[in-house]
Amino acid sequence: NVDTNNANFASEDGVLFNKNKTTLIVYPPYKTDISYIIPNSVTSIGDMAFYYCKKLESITIPESVTTFGESALEGCYLLESIDVDTNNVNFTSENGVLFNKNITTLFIYPSSKVDTEYTIPASVTVIDDKAFEECYDLESIVIPDGVTTIGDYAFSWCENLESIQIPDSITSIGEGAFENTAYYNDESNWTDGVLYIGNHLIRANSWGQYEEYIIPDGTKTIADWAFYDFYELESITIPDSVTNIGNYAFAYVDGLTNIILGNGVTAIGEGAFEGCYAESIEIPDSVTSIGESAFAYCDDLTNVTIGNGVTTIGNRAFELCGYLTNVTIGSGVKTIGEGAFDDCNDIENVYYRGYEEKWNSIDIGYDNEYLTENVTFLGGEIYSTQTTVSADGKTFTVAVDNTEVGKTVILALYKGDSLADIAYAVYESETLEFTTEEEYDSVLVYVWNSLSGLGSDTIAEIVK
């Protein structure tokens, strides 16, 4: 109970609010009522507002509520139903389950809902953190195609949940999402110490069993924390079928020295390889984002090659890689986060696969001085679609876009693995023409700052 003269807080029927009763702060855990209707004045339900209210069986949310705090109904083990006023523009309920208004995010499935089977509505794309946590009666769940995200601990401690259907549309599976479900605890569902659900790798528990592990082709997603703190794994091969590597998926894997990333990976999660022992990392062109701290504290890392598809290098991505010497950065990078290369004191060579003008347009956060001190510019992008070949195959017309006057354009013709002919010209803002009398079966086109810049970091496109 709050004194009526208190200028900041108020209470009603033992429930704590702010003074004007727009925020519900605490509903007492041992309050004996089995149902509760939130007052119409409330717009915000605070974090953990109904935390471990063990008697509550139903709750009604009025039209006025706009925000629902984190873990607001966590531990309400007897909760069977959540009902939302139909006029609420932010939330809705369907069969007692709480969603956002357009039913794209499933927030809470009540712990004591008695159904043994549940099919998530087809419109849902996100299953929130702890959405189904401790739903003891649930035995079967069908997640429809279109869902992309399963939150942290979303189905954890659903001790009778033994049938789980997950679509290939999933791109993110949170920490402990299926921990201590019946499916998770059934050893027959694990293959050589690794748990898969559908085409998604959930968790690896076979400490010391592998020195090398090749993730099966067809796997789509590696869940957050999947191999975290794994013991004695030295080599991991990720196939082209994998698109997302979860947060901390391989963090602090003892002895992990060899990391092979498939050409289908698009996102490397936060801390994904933090604290590993690889000496060299090659990030393929398919990757668009490198998460925060993704390779931080990799003490043995000396060489990093970042593909042209990467647009964002997250904060602290390579922080405290103290032996990092050579860094090659692709031409697609737009943002390098704060401290991405902080305390990388040994960096000697930074190669940028683009021109200085484009490098200067990159948003580079603070604490990256070791990265920016000595950059070598390797040249620009190649547009193979701008290259045409005459009917007799002897004349090549090359229109080079986004290239400065004075750059060198090189045409290299190959017969098998052997160089058959080579020609070059200085770009003067006009279309270039090359001819050959040699036989060939493939062609490479290069753009360079100068001929003296030739080296292994050349960017090229095959023209067929």
Biggest beta sheet attributes: 10 strands, mixed
Taking pLDDT < 50 over at least 5 consecutive residues as the criterion, the unreliable ranges are: 381-385, 450-464
Shape: elongated
The number of helical runs is 3
Average pLDDT, rounded to a whole number, is 90
Rg, Cα atoms, Å: 28 Å
Q: How many beta-strand elements?
A: 42
Structural class: mainly beta
Walkthrough of the structure:
The structure is a single chain. The chain is an all-beta fold and about 475 residues long. Among the domains are: about 1-80; about 385-464, Immunoglobulin-like (Sandwich). Helices cover about 5% and strands about 30% of the residues. It contains 3 helices and 42 strands. Strands 18-19-20-22-24-26-28-30-32-34 form a 10-stranded mixed beta sheet, with no helix packed on it. Strands 9-10-11-13-15-17 form a 6-stranded mixed beta sheet, with no helix packed on it. It has a 5-stranded mixed beta sheet with strand order 1-2-3-5-7, with no helix packed on it. Strand 38 (about 410-415) and strand 39 form a beta hairpin.
